[in-house]
Amino acid sequence: MLSSGFWKRRSLRVPDNQRTKAAELTLRESLYPLSLVTILFFLWGFSYGLLDTLNKHFQNTLGITKTRSSGLQAAYFGAYPLASLGHAAWILRHYGYRAVFIWGLFLYGLGALLAIPSIMHHSFAGFCVCIFIIGNGLGSLETAANPYITVCGPPKFSEIRINVAQAFNGIGTVVAPVLGSYVFFTFDDQTALRNVQWVYLAIACFVFLLAGVFFLSVIPEITDADMAFQAAETHAGADDRPFHTQYRLFHAAFAQFCYTGAQVAIAGYFINYATETRPNTDSSLGSKFLAGSQAGFAVGRFGGAAMMQFIKPRKVFALFMTMCIVFSAPAITQRGNAGLSMLYLVMFFESICFPTIIALGMRGLGRHTKRGSGWIVAGVLGGACVPPLMGAAADARGTGFSMLVPLCFFVAAWTYALAVNFAPPYRSVVDAFSTTDVGLREKQREDVGAEKGGEAGGKGGVTGPEDASEDKPDVVNSEKV
């Protein structure tokens, strides 16, 4: 087990100028790595849902204002650009996806462990620092997991894959508020804080164990050369231009910034909205309402993924983005059950927006895929910028009126939905990937593999780093930018 071959097969460094055939994986070949990575989506969904609940919990137990409580979101999402454009991006480009998965899980576990003494000493600032470390870990995971899900398997189904995987993120956001309603709000303050410690200890143990599973697993790596091949096969050709000219990518990153900011702001102040606008609603009941809205969010992702099998993903995205605007506007003036119903509908239609922006924004990037994914994930910085704006508006005019803030950012994100549907330079690249048969030609791959005498095609045809280094005919020179 501990032979040199064992360590070689689990090497974390993969040359980016060599093709590994990972960009041609069939549905069957991609099933195991996708299942393993999907667990990560549940993890950060749980962490994100827990954060929304802790936002209100700390307002109660530590006596802080809504604006100051948004420091949790600022610390959490403010860490994402540092990871996606900094340390995680560097590891991804110089090592590979599996290395980033392990690194992100390590940071996540470290932040969870350090959170325990901060909670014991009732230090909100210390807890924000720990959340910042956790945010770096989750930002690292998102930098790798989102593009990995998108490109691991037939590109024709990338939007469906990422939405199904992100649906487990939605399940995590449901579990966390339900847990919070029973663990944080039904005990006295001291007991509740002690319960938070146990939750973070359990999180740390689980993520360290999962990091070990990723190290022991041999999953296909996807290199720049693989993505250049995929872009060439679809005739998108977008990666032929320098990185700084990839305007579609930067538009997607802008949309991600605006959309994520609006989503995080609504979820972060959902409990405040419920307790202020609906009579006889306390924080515990508000947390249950939040869990219900997050359940609608998860259902929306499964439903949206199902729709994408019959309707082009760009059209489904435009519909859902439009509905976010339509239903968030009445929430500003409506109160009671009517206002809550509007937010339920908003969160249902938010469901597919985040993952679909990632999938559409990465279309045609080719050799720029790893670098480009970092920019789109960096758009999550909106989750650090918009909640403080909404918190300030809520302190000044009430949480109901503050819904005007996410509405404005939804409108800004909507510009990308319009572009991918009505601007030909956007639409042509997106549609080129929707019609390709890369990853669907298993029989043809078996025939080609037999002719070459190789083992890359056919039933067990995914090569790892060891095989790729010996597969000389498939080496592609891919100049890095």
Descriptive report:
This protein has a single domain (11-455), classed as Up-down Bundle (Growth Hormone, Chain: A). Helices cover 75% and strands 0% of the residues. It contains 22 helices and no strands. The protein is mostly helical. Residues 441-481 are annotated as: Disordered. The chain crosses the membrane at residues 31-51, 71-92, 99-116, 162-185, 197-219, 316-333, 339-362, 374-394, 400-419. Keywords: Cell membrane, Membrane, Transmembrane, Transmembrane helix. GO terms for molecular function: transmembrane transporter activity. This is Major facilitator superfamily (MFS) profile domain-containing protein.
- Terminal CA distance: 39 Å
How many domains comprise the coordinates?
A: 1
Number of helices: 22
Please count the beta strands (DSSP E, at least 2 residues each): 0
The fourth-level CATH homologous superfamily is MFS general substrate transporter like domains
Q: Spell out the helices and strands N to C.
A: HHHHHHHHHHHHHHHHHHHHHH
Major sheet summary line: none
CATH fold title: Growth Hormone, Chain: A
Mean pLDDT: 78
Uncertain segments: 443-481
Named at the architecture level, the CATH assignment is Up-down Bundle
Structural class estimated from helices and strands: mainly alpha
Shape: globular
What is the rounded Rg?
22 Å
Subcellular location: Cell inner membrane
Main location: membrane
GO molecular function: transmembrane transporter activity
Biased composition (Basic and acidic residues): 441-454, 470-481
